[in-house]
Amino acid sequence: MCGIIGYTGVRPAAPLLLEGLGRLAYRGYDSAGIAVLADGGRIVRCRAEGKLARLLEKCQGGAEIPGTAGIGHTRWATHGAPLEHNAHPHLDGGGRVAVVHNGIIENWRELRRELAGEGYTFSSETDTEVIVHLLARAVAAGRTPAEALRDTVGRLRGTYALGVIFACEPEVLYGVRRESPLLVGRGDGEMFLASDIPAILPYTRLVWEPPTDTIVRLTPRGVTLPFPGDAPAFREVTWDAAAAERGGYASFMEKEIHEIPQVVAHTATEGEALLPPSLAGNVTGVTFIGCGSAYHVGLAGAYFGEKLTGVPVRVFVASEFRYHPVPLAPRELVVAVSQSGETADTLAALREAKRRGAYVLSVVNVVGSTIARESDRVFYTQAGPEIAVATTKAFCAQLVAVYRLFAEIATAKRGRAVGAEVLSGLAKVPDAVRRVLDGREGIRRMAHRIAQAESAFFIGRGADYPACLEGSLKLKEISYLHAEAYPAGELKHGTISLVTAGVPVIALATQSALVGKTLSGVEEVHARGAEVYLITDETLTADAPTAARFVLPHIHEMLMPLPAAVAFELLALEVAAERELDPDMPRNLAKSVTVE
Ligand code: G6P
Fold it and tell me: What's the predicted TM-score (pTM) here?
């Protein structure tokens, strides 16, 4: 996500802020900027899109910007393309106030309408800019900066961490947060504000996270609370910088897996409809294109979508689709799924679909990416930047988006109740995922044995099958253990010749009508000496000879690939740990494959 740093002290602020932004870069960003309180009550701002090197060049390393207090930001676009005019800090027209913001303001549209109606002009497409004008309006009306900030956050809905400076208060920095992280750091004659510990770790190890909605006022001499609140309680950070970047987790992949409950809750409820309602009711078929895990999202969506909507769904690996002239029906919807929005094959397949007259919806994580720009319509999964090469949280967010898509089509075609059932099912996913995470010890025990093997097989039927494909891909990607996934009925048509004593077979059985069938497959491999690891739904009775079991919390049956995928992600992570491999940087793999 975006990063915030703020400073007030005795050193020149600009170079320090720029350095801090460098330490936030690992979080992923697409533009950056700083604003400094210069002499004479001026705010000097410098912003640039793209890499930090461009910002450094533009403001000459900060050397020419006078002032010892300021704020800085790395932006990862959510509202408005990743261009300079959308980069933070945002300033009001009169240059009286500058703001950096992480999070999403849900009611920005109505606030923007209100402010525009009063003559305020906007210079960005961000949700953040409304905050600047609300603050400027309050100050112009005679409020103190602290009062202006209190009034303003009272108008905001959503999540935020804010760093604010006012031209009328030299040396002073304000901060406030709701759900998004924000820390105050205490140094010797200097104070810091940061969204993340690594930004300030070289300067101080004393940090305090203010409670939600507590406004903090920083000067070089310390922190005060302009309104009643709990006294600051600073703690000492004992992590090193690398561990701090990972939020204390051993790897980014582990951190990102733990973000899934929050991410899926967000994707399930935020953002606009995936399709305009007029179109949702007219869809005659859906064709998915994607690569790797994004392809698996389409496969899972097909099982779910056809059942729910009755509309035929096809799924293509993008690199195949681009050279395979499949007939596209009139009003067929093509859905391009891509975390990065830059995968070359998916982009080429999208262009091919458009050339043939299809309406293309993309489900993308990176705002402003090429696939997003070239689609007729885009839905952003807003999973935050994903650092680990093997996708985890973005995969889950994509799956949620696809469930939402079919809920919309079902609502348009079959009535509100059908779609509503899916949405209420999705509301249970975050808790289900949390319970899977809590059960990690059981997965670790399985991983301990599986890690000794040379190859493993995943079997499942119906919606379990695409989840198995994803589980097998995860295991291959980060643990280098040879793995394959099969529909449980298909293994015996050839591949069972590879199942000998001790070979792990991971069976996923969450679909009530098919559990018996999958268990027959389990019996077949067990009879040949396989070690069976059964992953099933807590409400299903599954009698089978197994080496170990893992029980998933029960949610809507068609949504079970979500908790199953998380269990498989943990399994891959644990096997990689057993094999002493770095899960974040698997050999030969790239996060975004931008060549054919
Ligand atoms: C690479 C990544 C995979 C990802 C695939 C598609 O192979 O390593 O994790 O699933 O690309 O990427 P995309 O950005 O289009 O979702």
Answer: 0.82
